[in-house]
Design goal:
Shape: globular
Number of helices: 22
Radius of gyration: 26 Å
Order of helices and strands: HHHHHHEEHHHHHHHHHHHHHHHH
Number of strands: 2
Length: 607
């Protein structure tokens, strides 16, 4: 058996990022046709299943994959290969137990949730997604093991397989269910002389009633694709491990000390995971309280001084009234409108952090290994690499998003039923764009603290951040002069608190002194130039070639935005090279990276 090959932090992160981008693209390819197939009501059933599945899954999974990754990395660094394998074997047993419990909890909660919250027609979808908790938990034992061995490829490939299963099987099952249901309806109406038909055991007398019966089961079919995807992903990881193993050689296993007993390993794993479970609970409770407090405080602001809120959002409100999408005499409807506008911005908020999260996943085993053997040079290198790459990605993306907030929103929403809300959403997207660098490194800093054994610090920072966020909701959202924009302030401060607490603690404990000029200042200067280029180019082009974005997506506004983004990317890349803001290790992970690095070094363009 060949010895295992470890990926560098950047190699691993690039592999995971590539996988995440593919998963996001597949997700878009899934949701767009699914919405056309099911309609808004069917998407509601689909979303209802996810709304109850996500928190249960998040709590079930919290901490354990990280614990496995860290323990494996530490053991391998200390040449305890037998114990690393024992960690994997123990983790499989724990994950099976957690998966069974999580699945049972969702199955038990399905009927009460559907009956009292989501509507009874969402029950089939909730039941169909429940088994995926078990398979996702079980596959995470494999993912955590390979990540601990610093091999991110199995995780990335399994994520893509999972998404493809959802896309292909989910859409196919939804279409099959709709076809079967409509065939039953048409055949029944033909046999009864257009009086009534039986569809899935229910008597219906019209197309509307038939759809009402069919769509919940079609949504369940789409959700079952998620479960099938998790099964396929689990099978891939099991086969991968069966064929390739973990790469440990016979010599490594013979020379490694005897493993600790399985119960000792299990206790250590749970001990590491518990603070992360608490953090996940706090985060989920915070999100729930956040949703409730924002909406209730918007209502308070509207009741306190409706005219001030009306004046602030007059452009959007007037357009929505003209299009018969809003009744200004219904305060609750106005509240829902502002809450919906806020939700439109949230679709963009997590785009960049979703990618930079992978830096933390890749860095965790590398930093855990360096910390275990007291390798100060590798510790410093890993921490600096995560922050530097996070800034190289997040600063231009965030500032660019802020500079082109309105054009981006017009491209996506100008022709839809949410076009009137663009004026409300634009300032929110600008703020989230500028805050993107902070949000982008919040999870990686958490991962690095977990790697050095300080899982308690992220819990404390999340609690403090949550308190700040909820206070902001009460004070700012309830102020008619601020209203929905107060929620943005609270969210940004939430991430600022987390990053400040995490980063200061990480640097203090690790005794690492970061070169901030290289890590932050150089990318910031280049990102500012990138943002100015995007804003100026788009302003100039839209002035020369004005267009109406509501007519077609292929208008000069879209062309101007795309050209502006392209110019901004070129300016960012050139300015980074000119001020030597890119290191050699950043380049060699790219395709033909060694060749590119040699060329850039020849002209003195690498830092």
């Amino acid at each position: 058996m060949a010895s295992q090959k470890k990926q560098s932090v950047l190699n691993g992160a690039m592999m995971l990022m590539f996988g995440v981008v593919l998963v996001k693209l597949i997700g878009a390819l899934f949701k767009i046709p699914l919405t056309d197939m099911l309609g808004a009501t069917g998407r509601g059933y689909f979303n209802s299943a996810y709304e109850v599945y996500t928190p249960i899954f998040a709590i079930s999974m919290a901490g354990l994959p990280v614990a496995v990754s860290r323990m494996v990395a530490e053991n391998v660094a200390l040449n305890k290969h037998r114990e690393a394998r024992m960690v994997f074997n123990v983790s499989k047993r724990i994950f099976i137990l957690v998966g069974v419990i999580g699945t049972l909890v969702l199955l038990i909660a399905a009927y009460p949730y559907a009956h009292f919250v989501a509507g009874i027609k969402s029950l089939p979808a909730v039941l169909c997604v429940a088994p995926s908790i078990f398979f996702c938990c079980f596959m995470s034992a494999y993912r955590g093991y390979y990540e601990g061995l610093r091999n991110m490829t199995p995780t990335a490939v399994s994520q893509v397989i999972e998404a493809l299963g959802k896309l292909l099987i989910g859409l196919a099952l939804a279409k099959i269910v709709i076809s079967i249901g409509m065939n039953q309806y048409e055949a029944g109406m033909l046999a009864s002389g257009n009086v009534s038909a039986t569809v899935f055991g229910n008597s219906v007398t019209s197309d509307t009633e038939a759809n009402s019966v069919i769509i919940p089961w079609a949504a369940a079919g789409a959700v079952f694709g998620v479960t099938i995807g998790s099964v396929a992903s689990t099978l891939f990881l099991m086969i991968c491990h069966k064929i390739k193993g973990d790469g440990f050689t016979r010599v490594q296993l013979v020379n490694s000390p005897k493993s600790a007993p399985s119960d000792v390993i299990a206790k250590e794993m749970i001990k590491i995971a518990i603070p992360m479970v608490i953090s996940a609970l706090v985060l989920n409770i915070t999100n729930l309280v956040d949703t409730m407090t924002i909406q209730s405080r918007i209502l308070s602001a509207l009741n306190a001084d409706f005219d001030t809120v009306l004046q602030m959002h007059s452009e959007s409100f007037n357009e929505a009234v003209r299009l018969s999408r809003l009744n200004l005499n219904d305060i609750k409807e106005v509240k829902s409108y502002l809450w919906g506008a806020y939700g439109m911005a949230l679709d963009f908020k997590n785009l960049v952090p979703t990618i930079t999260i992978q830096l933390g996943v890749s860095a965790l085993p590398a930093l855990a290994a360096a910390w275990a053997v007291k390798d100060k040079k590798s510790t410093k290198s890993t921490i600096e690499t995560v922050i530097r790459i996070g800034m190289l990605i997040a600063l231009p993306a965030g500032i660019g998003m802020a500079a082109l907030a309105e054009p981006i929103l017009n491209i996506i929403y100008a022709r839809g039923s949410s076009s009137d809300a663009v004026a409300v959403v634009t300032p929110i997207l600008v703020a989230y764009g500028l805050a993107t660098p902070v949000m982008a490194i919040s999870t990686p800093t958490t991962n690095m603290l977990q790697a050095i054994g300080r899982t308690d610090i992220p819990v404390k920072s999340v609690v403090v951040g949550a308190i700040v966020k909820i206070i902001c909701n009460f004070v700012l959202v309830g102020n008619p002069k601020i209203n929905i924009y107060g929620a943005v302030v609270g969210t940004i401060l939430f991430y600022v608190v987390i990053v400040v607490c995490n980063l200061t603690s990480l640097l203090r404990i690790s005794k690492v002194k970061v070169n901030w000029a290289s890590v932050l200042l150089k990318p910031l200067i280049c990102a500012a130039l990138c943002g100015v280029t995007a804003y100026a180019a788009n302003g100039l082009l839209t002035t020369i070639f004005p267009s109406d974005p509501s007519q077609s997506i292929l208008n000069m506004g879209t062309v101007s935005a795309v050209i502006s983004i392209g110019l901004a990317v070129v300016v960012y890349a050139i300015s980074l090279l000119l001020i030597k803001g890119i290191a050699r290790e950043d380049v060699i992970v790219l395709p033909k990276g060694e060749k590119i690095a040699k060329t850039l070094e020849k002209y003195g363009l690498l830092g």
